[in-house]
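Structure tokens please, single chain.
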Amino acid sequence: MTKRTVQYLADSGLIDGKQVLMRVDFNVPMENGAISDDTRVRAALPTIKFLLRRGARLVLCSHLERPQSVPASQWHTISLAPVAGCLSAHLGTTVQFAGNCVGDLARQARAALRRRQVLLLENTRFHSGEEMNCPLFATALAGLKDGVASKTKKLDCPAEVFVNDAFGACHRAHASTAGVVGAMAGSPHVMGFLVERELQVLQEILDRPGRLVVVLGGAKVSDKIGVVRNLLPIAKTILIGGGMAYTFLAAEGHPIGKSLFEPECVETVRQVRAEARAGGVEIVLPTDVVVAPAFKADARATVVPACAIPPGQEGMDIGPETRQRFAEEVADADTVFWNGPMGVFE
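Here you go.
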């Protein structure tokens, strides 16, 4: 199936002078209010520069971390304001920043935006409507109507084009990824160059995998279970690490202490393991893990068998025995598909 990209917008004359709402993945690691790794910012630059060269009035939106796990009094530590400065340095021009992603503050900033100017909106997850995919919030994020109460309706400034270049968030049915498409029905919505490139690579894997070894980590089984199922027909081995490994271990009846756990996914995990066995695919779980009583820099870390994590201990990483086994599997692969870290890294 042909998928439209920003190149289609340019070829169709749909960029110049238009307000373009672009979903980016600026979920960057932060330390003491500063960006410690700007890889995700740099990954979005080709699409951003392309749109600016063609005269877009560019509005960027993104989430950053999980505000629900941070006290509201500390939300300033997960503001996207530092990203605006980082992006300004990369672009060589001032990136404006709105202290909210919806409401009057955002409206005013969007209404003032001119051709070849960039506006970065504040963290979309500061609003519960983002992860709930609330239609009213999506409408407000698209700059349409009065999705959020406004004292100045004249400032409604709708986006005319939607570009999704947030590959790391494309799978989430959130307001800023899926909801705005519905809110902007009839307007062009396309993918950016980053998403296009990732899809091309994934297609190559599907077409010519050879001996495919899949390495999956990250926090949640619920985020990755679809990936596992889609790759079962072509994968030879699937290596499971990260926080999601503890739900797999719990599904086998092993104690996991205080480790990350999604009880609602246990039955799904069992089904997937049965599907893998039926298809001759080996799912490899950690045999040893690094644990600590808490996620703190001064916590005492120890290595224990993955099947016997003590009470009061939390899994932090795969252990040395598991690292060796995973390395051997990867070394024997023709193709490696890797998504997500094997342990805590932020």
